[in-house]
Amino acid sequence: RAAGLNLYLKPCIKSSTQSVQRVHNVCDSPLVSNLPPSSFRSSSQLSGSHAPGFAKLNRREGAGGWSPLTSDRYQWLEVDLGERTRITAVATQGRYGSSDWLRSYLLMFSDTGHNWKQYRQEDSLGAFPGNSNADSVVQYKLQQPAVARFLRLLPLDWNLSGRIGLRLEAYGCPYTSDVVSLNSDSSGLIHRASAGSRTSSTDVLSVKFKTRRNAGSLLLAEGQRGLGLSLELQRGTLQLLINKGTSSSDSRLLVSMGSLLDDQHWHHVALERRGSRLNLTVDTHTERVQIPAEFNHWDIEQGNVTFSCVEPVSVAVTFPGPQSFLQLPAEAASLSGGLSVTFQFRTWNEAGLLLTFDLLSEGGVVWLYLSEARLRLQIHKTGRAVLELSAGSSLNDGQWHSVEIISRGGRLTIAADRGEGGSAHASLTFPVSGCRNPFHVFQGCMRLFSVEQREVDLIKVQQKLTGNYSNVHIDMCGIIDRCSPSPCEHGGRCTQTWTVFHCNCSDSGYSGAPAHRSVYQQSCEAYKHNGNTSGHYHIDVDGSGPIRPQLVYCNMTEGDTWMVIQHNNTERTRIRPSPSGNLYSVHLDYMTEEEQLMAVISQSEHCQQELSYRCRRSRLLNTPEGSPFSWWLGGRGSGRLQTYWGGAQPGSRQCACGLQGDCVDPHHYCNCDADRMDWTEDSGLLTHKESLPVRSLVLGDLQRPGSEAVYRVGPLWNAAFFDKETSYLHFPTFHGELSADISFLFKTTASSGVFLENLGIKDFIRIELSSSTQVLFSFDVGNGPLEVQVEAAVPLNDNRWHMVRAERNIKEASLRLDDLPAATQEAPADGHFHLQLNSQLFIGGTASRQKGFRGCIRSLQLNGVTLDLEERANITPGVRPGCPGHCSSYGFLCQNRGGCEEKANGFYCDCGRSAHTGVFCQTEVSATFKSTTSVSYTFREPYEVVRNSSSPPSSIYSEATLRGENISLSFRTNQSPALLLYVSSYSREYLALLINKHDKLEVRYKLDSSREAEVVRSRVRTLANGQLHTVTVRSPFLLPSDSEDLDPDLARLGSLGFSGCLSVVSFNSVSPLKAALLHPDTSPVSVSGPLLQSSCGSSASANPYAAENKHHLSGRTSARPASSGVIALVIFVVVTGLAVTARFLYRRKETYRSQEVKGVKQEEIPEFPFNNQTCSQTVSGESQKEYFI
Fold this sequence. Notes:
Structural class: mainly beta
Protein name: Contactin-associated protein-like 4
Strand content: 35-45%
Low-confidence stretches: 1-10, 16-24, 299-307, 425-437, 721-727, 941-963, 1037-1044, 1102-1189
Membrane topology: Single-pass type I membrane protein
Number of helices: 12
Radius of gyration: 43 Å
Domain Laminin G: 315-477, 718-883, 934-1096
CATH architecture of the largest domain: Sandwich
Distance between the termini: 97 Å
CATH topology of the largest domain: Jelly Rolls
InterPro entries: ConA-like_dom_sf, EGF, FA58C, Fibrinogen-like_C, Fibrinogen_a/b/g_C_dom, Galactose-bd-like_sf, Laminin_G, Neurexin-related_CASP
Largest sheet: 8 strands, antiparallel
Shape: elongated
Domain EGF-like: 479-516
């Protein structure tokens, strides 16, 4: 085997073995104080005594330091250290005995005295802090040492009462390395292993390179079986490829790193192999990749070579802002006489003016600019564009692009990157509408200016010997790739301009400037708190963490909320005997990634999964002493072997019946182990979280004749905590250096207090209630405090839960309170962005113990991690875990008379008093009736009602004392007449709700046996039209109970039966229809005939485009309230024959069937109008009528 290192690129390359050894030694020796005056240069000097050679720290020679002729931002002081040196710190001082000092400056480095590179702190901040007087020394230790021969300092700001004045020192140590220069396409340096070289499990190869080309091969490592690893530069980016042949199509990209690596500055590359893992480092960024086993050993022997590194001088110009311009000397331009202009540029902006010059002979102006990342040229004459050409595309990619403008023989040509461009005859007669100077300002770099094939000397321009300029940096290209490494998280796509980056986070499930904040909730319980019902939802279990969102089903019941995770085999599966004698094995694939699945399980309060086995002559676990016939694997990874079954405990080797002692054979601990010929079953729930989920199932006793089994592994159900609460606690330091998102809920009666605080030496982060209506988010990363605040329109100290979400990243800070619009503040484009904290994180207070928060905090999450506040509260004096009062904030979610009930970590809606059901009592309970269907409900005696007043929430009767009758129901029918509801006592007193023969709604009641029946009708006709109608009857009377007579008219009407839909039927606190459908075994209800539950009572089940109508009627009566007695019998009637199931009604059924329905006595009673209103509980706009009587 031969492994090699082949270098093909045209860069300078050096081995840094010696320098690496010095990193661990002291490297802080003075570098400037012993240099001769000839080592100093400057842009200018005020006088001979202010020369740059006097700019040595703590020296008083000459005028006590350097001062330029004029004080502006175009001055500089340069120091030649004599050789390449590792520089670790710089120190500045003002000019001795004067008012001249710098307040801030830029620091530049170079190997050659050209092509300067600005030193940036944290890859962004360029300015260094200076002095506040002339004598004190301000030293700054470089975060990353710089290696260079030349140092240049550019003043940015100085004492306004003086001028620029400077003395300086640099600290470091010598730096040596072996260098090789490769100057042709065929040159290369090869290291091959010697025959006796040793192998190891770890190899490290490091190299530094510099180049001005953006493509080439840097390294090639050869492995076995024709495989190779190559490190190649493509468009200024370093790519690690695995090669399976000689063709480029056989290469596979492993990782791409770095950017703008063709800037002719040194870049560090390191390859560290540990087994089959390879760490690739480019400058300060490291990525880990997996490599094939053929590269498990590299036998590379490095030789010692020393060459010179010859570098071409290329002077670039940086245009950083809107006031930047460069004016170059040139002869009078003429298209007819010939013209040639060439240069190169690089930028991230898609628009900007590149070049303009006058055509004196033709009397026009040439404008060369970028528009939509294309090169465009316009010639303007007398205020209008007379010629327009274009060339190139996607020229804002940060690469160097060449531009040529050539006019020869009366023909004008423009080209980009020496490709095809635009050309035209320069006749200047083609009219194009336009306006003068409609172009953006160019921000980027330019170099290699040439006019009439003569290169422009930009150093002379810098020295102001020729030309002119403003707000530009000459002899450097200050372009920065803000997308390398990408600041966008969670797969967000990074794009940029010269000054700012953007993250496209569409379809990623995340939002915010760096795609940091998840747009999804972290649990089904959180969706429930937002008012959502059962359905499929995206869950992001770690919020802004690295785990991706997953789509799950949230099953929200009245009591619990479950997250259901499906797998590929949840149905019952039948297994026939296997004559081969092999074990039957099945592997389960869950519809979520492993990382997501385990995070859900670990964060859940309770998990369960059904495991069932229905068998006939197929034993399951055998006996506890024998080897099991079947088993399953569960838990992390591929799972651990488990020999217990659903409903039993881990390690018990039992089934549920063995634990309960009711197996079909008491000598065994599973029903199936009885080995019977008839079918039996072992099933139950697996609830031990460490054993979940079930990964695979192995069934063994299926070889014998007659053996047969059916198995089922249900989906995984998880019930997750929504919150944990407390008041004042402290935790370890919060690490949110680049991105920090914080969310929590609070409730309080105090008008101010600190929710959260973490301090550093200078940096800090804090969220507080600054007033009763204002939440304040403040922090400092070194640029000075930045504050974001949200003002609420109502007081926040209302003892209700309020949601706070704060986020800070390198681009902006935002704060959101409840559902109010988010407030944002942009971070400085060139400033510190690392948040450096070192103290404890305080929750509900501050380090100084001032302005502590008094109230409750729950569901606190920092960067997607939920802090266990309850656990910390249990061991913290003065703090109580838990914080009741969820119903004060979420009780409004319970609808239709549903009552909010507190839970330890949340709430639930008790639908016992409601005719509805569902997690928020929002679902109608409806049934379809045939003409033969009847439902009757019998009230209990008073003492029975009282005795059952403490019944569970599912109870449908709870009021012991009735103060009046309140009846409501919805119906849908095409039948008229029809009896809808009949309420009676053991006397002739009754109340009936019906549709009469005129298709009107009617309430007929009789409260005194000595009086005739009274009637209340609505004015609305055509109620039997198949649409949904809702009726409410509210009467101030009670029904006494004396006799057993029945109104013959109602008996006749009841005999007609009812066909249609009835929904959400309630009488006071009783819901007869709900009792019959959902609680038939525990309620005093009887049903005859077919009763089918359906969604016919939902307004969404009919015409969704019809207008919604609800009818409210008010009844008037002179009947006296009953002084004693209760309702003895309520009969909810839709029957054939008589509409009542009480025995005295059935006794008279045949008598009334042959009679006509008699008219009521009081026909003169006026009909009552109704009002149209909107029902907040209706899902859609179906034509629903609601009557209140």
